[in-house]
Design goal:
With 80 residues, the chain is mainly α. It has one domain. The protein has helices spanning 3-22, 26-32, 38-46, 52-60, 72-75.
Length: 80
Amino acid sequence: MTDQVKSAKEIRIQARVWMLEKGIRSVDIQNALHMNNHNLVSDTLAGRRNNRRVLRYLLEQGCPSEYLALPKDIKGEDIS
């Protein structure tokens, strides 16, 4: 495992903790985004993928961007 992938997974743990504190479950994200496949949400939360819809949803809910190891194309976006 590369240092970059390991770091992304460690950072995303913070997002999971944030979700628990806010009472947001991965299935809530799946339902809110009308996704049929739970793997996209799960893999994004685990740091294996960067599904932009999931990441934007978390940002819109107030998740700090530093908890998400955002890809470069999302980092500078205004989500409002």
